[in-house]
Amino acid sequence: MRFRCKVVDVSCLNHFTRMVNTISKLTKACTLRLAPDKLYFILSDKVANGGVGMWCELFQPSLSSSSRIVTHDIPVGVIPRRLWIDFKEPSVPDFDVSIYLPALKTMKSIVERMKNLSNLVVIEANLNGEMNLKIETDLVSVTTHFKDLGNPPWVSEEGSQASTQDRDPESMVEARVDIRKLLQFLAGQQVNPSKAICNIVSGRIVHFILLHEDVSLQYFIPALA
User: Fold this and answer.
1) H helices of the chain, where?
2) What are the beta bridge partners of residue 122?
3) Rounded-to-integer distance, Cα 150 and Cα 90, Å
4) Domains defined for the chain, CATH in brackets
5) Side-chain half-sphere exposure of 203, counting CA atoms within 13 A
6) Sign of CA dihedral 167, 172, 176, 180
7) What pTM, to 2 d.p., does this model score?
8) What average pLDDT score do residues 55-76 get?
9) 25, 122, 126, 143: most buried by Cβ count inside 10 Å?
10) Could you give the CA distance from residue 186 to residue 169 in angstroms, rounded to a whole number?
11) Residues in Cβ contact with 163 at an 8 Å cutoff, skipping those fewer than 6 apart
């Protein structure tokens, strides 16, 4: 099937290319949903069954007279309308802790070193802006501490602070994840987000959110026992 797109300008094309390169590091195939003002890239693996999930939104600027047509043939398959419900936007999990991430390049460097020591990494954080990355094996225990990261001011639909604010600020919440999946997420980033957030549901899931101008990317990694 022929895929045809209209490019507004070179900067738009470069932006789109960076986004596609990021997604290609996370998955070899995904669902593309087209809307009048946005493009959606969706990876709907069942997180409950050990797969990762992804939801990425890319805003499309208004087309101008300087636009041009670019045609490229790629293998695609059309999803029947009856299956569209399987590709709806995921709901934000009822997390126990939400925290801003440190520089992704710093995290990537640390996780790369930890990967040589263990297949699993524990991510833990609290409401005092503290986050730890740690591995524990029979031979070694390594922990990297981050402080003063800050916690996003999530607000509930009723306008009050989210229930996480009732937790002890010093109490750590943790999830153990496959270190390869975490490194895959960190290594593929070309978004250079203005905000990077990590939400942790204790012992169940780690939910990452990257925000930058007209791009938002959500990534879900299931926790392991």
Assistant:
1) 10-26, 104-115, 179-187
2) 134, 176
3) 25
4) 2-87 (no CATH), 97-205 (3.70.10.10)
5) 1
6) positive
7) 0.82
8) 67
9) 126
10) 27
11) 156
